[in-house]
Amino acid sequence: MSWLFGLRKGPGEGEGAPHQQSGNFEQGAGDHHAGAGAGGGDGSRSGAKGDTPLPSKMDAYRFDSAALERAAKAARELESSKNAKEALELTKAHETTLQLEHQKGIKQYEAHTEEVRLEQIRASHEEKRKTLSEETKQAQQRAQYQDQLSRKRYEDQLAQQQRINEDNLRKQEESVRKQEDMKRATIEHELELREKHDVKRVEAEARAKAKAERENRDLILEKIRVQSAENRTTTLESIKTAGSILGAGLTAFINDWDKVTAAAGGLTLLALGVYSAKMGTGVGARYVESRLGKPALVRETSRLTFFETLRHPVKNIKRLFSKPADALSGVVLKPDLESRLRDIAITTRHTKKNNGFYRNLMMYGPPGTGKTLFAKKLAYHSGMDFAIMTGGDVAPMGRAGVTAMHKTFDWANTSGKGLLLFVDEADAFLRKRSSVRQRH
């Protein structure tokens, strides 16, 4: 019956919880006073769950006499009852359940206490981390501020040094300008003095010369008259002598017919030699130009010339030993147009091999579409030379353009491998007669 007085000691309980014993004592007494012992279980559960606030430590040392009387009365009633043994067992079982629930509450409290401690530790670590982060941020800001101060100080030093250098440079320029001004003033003064001196000297010489001429005027006039008379006499004598000699020679030449015939034949041969030399030189020059040079209308050609060979020997040698490449390599075209141009390239190559007659080809399109590039590739593919001329160069020549065109075609006929002549911007001079008449 010790449990009625709150003297129970379950596992895990010790002397350190006197307030729990007092609570159990009051709850047990209340249960028996209510009767049947069933209501005491609810009161114990509510005390174990902690719905009511826990009593203080001084409550464990108070003695309630009314509770003791109620407990004694309940004990007498229980002993006189025929179900005392069953009630005792039920009460023991109920007490065991309450002890287990109380231990569970203790464990929950300890777990909650541990969670609170961990939360405090975590909060402490979080606070330390924030503090460290803030210190790091402040250190970075302080370092940035120090760096900004250093940069500003360095920029100020540079600006000050630049101002000093500009001041020194300005002072040097002013000093040099002053020296130049002084030197210029000195030179101008010297030139002015020299000019005055030269003017005075010329004036003195002119006055002296005029004075001497005035004093010697009669002598100078007499000398001029004597020299004029002598020159006249000498000239007349020379004319008379030359006339007599030429007249005697002409008379003798006319009287001798053999000399006249020889002179006429010599003059005829001389004129014939001069004309032949002139014509032969022109023919030779045109032949040399057709073989070694290129016409004025041809802007670019792959035909080897003497001067081009001397200028680029390695390039020309490589080109001589290079193999014919594909005519459309490096040219991007539409499939149908590429097929047509490839057929043209194959036909031109076979015509070159079989010494057949070539056909003229006209290509039309805006600038930059590959017309000139295809002409070059076609010439290389067929094993021929190419030459490029521009129609815009023919139109300004006027009537001389026909002669220049004849020279170009004559030069093209002298090629040993055959030449593909590409006329760029041909619409500049190849126009319809109707359009020309309308313009006139």
Description of the molecule:
The chain is mostly helical. 73% of the residues lie in helices and 4% in strands. The chain has 13 helices and three strands, in the order H-H-H-H-H-H-E-H-H-H-H-E-H-H-E-H. It has helices spanning 18-34, 39-49, 65-80, 84-215, 217-255, 257-292, 306-311, 313-321, 335-353, 371-382, 391-394, 400-413, 433-439, and strands at residues 298-301, 385-390, 419-424. A three-stranded mixed beta sheet has the order 1-2-3, with helices on both faces.
Order of helices and strands: HHHHHHEHHHHEHHEH
CA-CA gap between termini? 147 Å
What is the β-strand count?
3
What's the main sheet like? 3 strands, mixed
Spatial order of the strands in the main sheet?
1-2-3
Spans of 5+ residues with little confidence (pLDDT < 50)?
1-52, 436-440
Q: Please report which band the strand proportion falls in: under 5%, 5-15%, 15-25%, 25-35%, 35-45% or over 45%.
A: under 5%
Helix-strand makeup class: mainly alpha
Helix content: over 70%
Provide the residue-averaged pLDDT: 76
The count of helical stretches stands at 13
Shape: elongated
Q: For the CA atoms, what is the radius of gyration? A: 68 Å
Kindly summarize this structure in a few lines.
Helix content is 73%, strand content 4%.
What are its keywords?
3-stranded mixed β-sheet; 3 strands; 440 residues; mainly alpha; 4% strand
